Amino acid sequence: MPGSGTAEAPPTLDATLGGCFLVALLAERFMLDPVPAGDAVAAVAVGVLLAVAVALRRRLPFPAFVLSATALCLEALLTPVSWLSPYANLLGVWSVARHASRRQAWWGLAGTVVCVGVYFTFRDDAVRPTQPLGVLVVWLALWTAGYAMARRQEEQRAVRRLDRERAVAVERARIARELHDLIGHTVNLMLVQAGAGRRLLDRDPGRARDLLLDLENSGRDALTELDRVLGVLGDAEPVGADRLDMLPDLARRITEAGLPTTSEVDPAVTDLPHSLDLTAYRIVQEALTNALRHAGATRAWVTVRADDGWLDITVRDDGQRAVGGYRPGRGLLGIGERAAMFGGTATHGAGPDGFRLHCRLRS
User: Which of 64, 96, 236, 242 has a CA that sits 20 to 30 A from residue 220's CA?
Assistant: First the structure.
């Protein structure tokens, strides 16, 4: 990873580059411009150090830079200088800026200035006064380019990390809403069935037995649906997840719990995306659960229609308890959030004829 000393290329690539550099440097030192015999050992040692620095420049950018700078200074001190050696250090300057951490990169910048100064101070041949300045400008320009590229990649990684964290947060919120809708609906339904069974236990044992059977089935269905919701955490979509064509079954369960419910789905509502289908079902489920628990209603109606690119959902009941004013609870707020996920709206309120929830979801 750039900026942390991790190799971006296979190690063999840099090792090959280091080997090629050593061969070229030795050919230059002993064939094109031979060094004196007394300097041969020092020239070979410096060449090996520079080649090792080139080979390690990505995996260990800061140590490799220090090694190349040291080797270049030793060359100026011990042997006639090579025209090829400085390019190994130049590659090290680029690498320390591009692949090392921020702190190491800045230490590399300071080392570059020192290295250039020492190199030109101890060279045994005369140089023009402007040559060290020109070399330093080139070295610093390459360091600046590498440093800027590394920082830009750091910013990109930070943005990607934030995007991942945001996506995880959204997914957690979605799963939390899903669990709230599922468990809240089922538990409330079971409580209503248990209460009705208790009241009928002495007066109508047969009816009480039926309610207890419905209670058992509701618990079994809750476990099945819980498995489906938790299946979202895996790689595959939950098999048989809730959808709008299961509204008649939902209406039946609400009716058996004590709130006669009628559902009507427009035949044009077909082939919806899975997420939209599930969201629409959950909205209806939450609305009917609220009506069952809080509205004091005796009847409820559900209509779902397709309307020019929109999915139109209306849940209405004849409850009267909210006429004098109400505060939206977690369920209604969750419905609003679900609608917003699909660029839609959710409006709700009480009137003379009961409570009405209206949602529009972009399909």
Answer: 236
Q: Are 103 and 186 within one domain?
A: no
3-state secondary structure of 210: helix
- Is 0.70 topped by the overall pTM? no
State the Cα–Cα distance between residues 55 and 166, nearest whole angstrom: 40
C-alpha 188/C-alpha 317 separation (Å) is 17
CA distance 178 to 170: 12
Residue 351 has phi, psi (to 5 degrees) of -145, -175
Task: Give me the domain span that covers residue 311.
Answer: 168-362
CB 144, CB 246: distance < 8 Å = no
Judgement on whether residues 191 and 52 belong to the same structural domain of the protein = no
Give the integer Cα–Cα distance in Å for 338 and 335.
Answer: 5
Exposure of 231 in the CB half-sphere (CA atoms within 13 A)? 13
> Which DSSP helix (H) or strand (E) runs through 184?
helix 130-200
Q: Are residues 189 and 119 in the same domain?
A: no
232-272: pLDDT as tens digits: 555 444 444 568 888 998 898 888 878 899 999 998 888 88
